[in-house]
Design a protein that fits this description.
single chain; two-stranded antiparallel ribbon; 6 helices; binds zinc ion
C-alpha cells in the first residue's frame, strides 16, 4: 500500500497514528530506514482502524511512562522547576484531565504558552518525540470520535453536507479548519499540522529525553 492522502479528519488521524506505530517498530531494529515489516505494521493498523476492526489504545502505557519519568520535563529533560502542562491547552478546549497533562519545566511551559504540541513543534521546526505524539493523537482521536468529527472532509474542493458545528463558538483561540462547505469547524488541536510523513528511524526521538543525555 502506497502512502495515502487522507480525505477526512478520521483518515488523517488514523494515518498519522498508523505511521506512528511504524516509527516505533522501525526504531527497534538498527536500520537507518524503514523495513518491509514496518510498512506492514502501518498498513494493517491503518486498514483495521478505518474498518473498525482495530482500536486506538487507551492511555495506560502513556500514564505509566509519565509516572516513570515524572522527575524530568517531557520536552527537554530538565529536572528543575517542574510543573504540569496541558498538551492541548485549556484555552483551545483541551481538558483538565490526567490524559492531557504532562510534566514540563517552567522554561518549556513559558515557551509553549497557549500553543498545542504540534503548533509549538512547528514553530521550533522540530518533529515531536514519538511518545508525546502518541498521547496527542489519542487525545485528538478521542475528541473527534466523541464529537462526531471523524467524517469531515478535508478537501475544500469536494462538496459535502454542510455541518453545523457550534463547538468552541465562544473560544476564539480554537483551531479552525475550513472544510468542504467553506464552513469553519473548530478543533482544540492543530488538525492542519497532523503529521503524515515521519522521519526515518535514525532521526526520530522515541523516548523522553533525560537530563543525563543532554
Ligand atoms: Zn523543559
Amino acid at each position: 500500500m502506497a502512502p495515502i492522502i487522507p480525505k477526512t479528519v478520521g483518515e488523517s488521524l488514523y494515518w498519522s497514528y498508523a505511521n506512528l506505530a511504524m516509527a516505533f517498530t522501525g526504531g527497534r531494529h538498527n536500520e537507518p530506514t524503514y523495513q518491509q515489516i514496518d510498512f506492514i505494521v502501518r498498513n494493517k493498523l491503518y486498514c483495521g482502524l478505518v474498518r473498525g476492526s482495530l482500536n486506538v489504545k487507551n492511555f495506560i502505557i502513556d500514564e505509566k511512562e509519565k509516572l516513570d519519568a515524572s522527575d524530568a520535563c517531557c520536552y527537554c529533560g530538565s529536572r528543575s522547576n517542574l510543573s504540569l502542562d496541558h498538551l492541548i491547552p485549556q484555552l483551545k478546549g483541551g481538558r483538565h484531565s490526567a490524559d492531557n497533562l504532562v510534566v514540563a519545566c517552567r522554561s518549556c511551559n513559558s515557551s509553549k504558552k497557549a500553543l498545542d504540541l504540534m503548533e509549538w513543534m512547528a514553530k521550533k521546526k522540530q518533529f515531536p518525540p514519538l511518545r508525546l505524539l502518541r498521547r496527542y493523537l489519542k487525545l485528538a482521536i478521542q475528541y473527534c470520535v466523541e464529537n462526531d468529527l471523524m467524517d469531515i472532509l478535508l478537501n475544500p474542493d469536494e462538496p459535502t453536507e454542510p455541518k453545523q458545528l457550534t463547538l468552541f463558538d465562544d473560544v476564539e483561540a480554537g483551531i479552525r479548519l475550513e472544510h468542504a462547505d467553506r464552513a469553519l469547524t473548530f478543533f482544540p488541536f492543530a488538525i492542519a499540522l497532523i503529521p503524515h510523513r515521519f522521519p526515518d528511524p535514525e532521526n526520530v526521538v522515541d523516548r523522553v529525553p533525560s537530563a543525563d543525555q543532554e
